[in-house]
Specification:
Layout: E1 9-16, E2 25-26, E3 35-38, E4 42-50, E5 77-85, E6 89-90, E7 94-99, H1 112-123, E8 128-130, E9 137-141, H2 142-145, E10 148-154, E11 156-158, E12 161-163, E13 176-177, H3 180-187, H4 194-200, H5 204-208, E14 211-212, E15 216-224, E16 227-228, E17 233-236, E18 239-242, H6 249-252, E19 258-266, E20 272-282, H7 283-311
Parallel strand pairs: 10-13
Antiparallel strand pairs: 1-2, 1-20, 3-4, 4-5, 5-15, 6-14, 7-9, 7-19, 8-9, 10-15, 11-12, 16-17, 17-18, 19-20
């Protein structure tokens, strides 16, 4: 197998309401806008930032002011969101994490099990999963896994659909709540500090005491300095793990890429709230895809021009 290097690939990030890629939209990484997601189970806005971004769409900013602001100066990426549940969900049911469509055990690099133990011990004790099963996954309770959690106001409906209030956005989300929402946290004795809140919700009883209310806005920001998506590498203290050398284009057959996805879902029902997918795309595939889109757009313009010419009928004045 030829040696693979990061500069042979471009990163692409998409977000959508479920696992089906046809429902996803391309995320403008490090850009000013968020991607709206409407699923059967929630209404959400999602914003993704990646440090030293090298990917699609072409011309994307390489970084964001987010990474020059404390406490994010060492972080590698961020998935920030605003989310409105369509039904009330127990705090013990809502998960956030990673999963895969098919077994990956034969493609895992040496050291994967060690890496998981380090992550669970040093970073997120609430994580549970199995990368060696037929359904590989790594989930944690949203309440104890998300770095920043903010409780927002009740949302209103327009034409029967919830709308995230215009004054709420996915920039600079901070831990806590305001006004009535702050009282909700106090009633449940939830610590104001993010680290203390995460520790608090490692207790299953505390999670069961909390509900994500139908129609209320919740905001979160998930970030860390450990995953370098441009290299598809996990960089832990004293331990580094890259999967680039284990990408097998022939095995992927029609999909010559490598994906890593995040999902928010209900543990008991399997209901998916939203999905964010990071995909390493071979440069040649990305260039061919871009050329096809450009050619298709050009053909469409020519076709429209031709239709306009066919529609033109000379007037009497034009014949003089």
């Amino acid at each position: 197998m030829a040696h693979k290097t990061a500069d042979q690939y471009l990163l692409r990030v998409t977000a959508g309401p479920d696992y089906d890629p046809s429902t996803h939209a391309l995320v403008a990484v490090n850009g000013p806008t968020s991607v709206p997601v409407f699923s059967n189970h929630c209404t959400a806005n999602i914003k993704v930032r990646v440090q030293n971004y090298r990917g699609l769409p072409h011309g994307s900013p390489a970084t964001s002011a987010y990474f020059s602001t404390a406490p994010h100066t060492h972080d590698q990426y961020s998935i920030a969101f605003s989310m409105i549940p369509h039904t009330t969900v127990s705090g013990n049911e809502l998960l956030f994490g990673n999963d895969f469509d098919r077994p990956i055990r034969d493609r895992l690099p040496p050291g994967t099990e060690t890496a998981f133990k380090i992550v669970k011990w040093a970073i997120d004790p609430g994580l549970e999963g199995d990368f060696y099963s037929d359904t590989p996954h790594l989930y944690g309770p949203l309440l104890s896994s998300i770095n920043v959690l903010r409780v927002g106001p009740k949302a209103t409906k327009r034409d029967g659909k919830y709308e995230i209030p215009a004054h709420l956005h996915e920039d600079g989300i901070t831990e806590g709540a305001e006004g009535e929402e702050a009282e909700l946290r106090k009633e449940k004795q939830i610590p104001e500090d993010a680290a203390a809140r995460k520790k608090h919700f490692l207790n299953e009883k505390h999670r069961k005491d909390w509900e994500f209310e139908e129609g209320r806005v919740y905001q979160g920001d998930f970030f860390n300095p450990y995953i370098d998506f441009n290299e598809f590498a996990l960089k832990l203290p004293g331990f580094s793990l890259s999967v680039l050398g284990y990408i097998d284009a022939k095995q992927d057959n029609l999909r010559r890429s490598h994906e890593f996805r995040y999902v928010m879902k209900n543990k008991s029902t399997g209901d998916v709230f939203f999905v964010v997918v990071f995909t390493l795309v071979p440069k040649e595939d990305a260039e061919n895809e871009s050329a096809s889109i450009t050619a298709a757009a050009s053909d469409e313009v020519k076709q429209q021009d031709g239709e306009k010419k066919d529609e033109y009928e000379p007037k009497d004045d034009d014949l003089d």
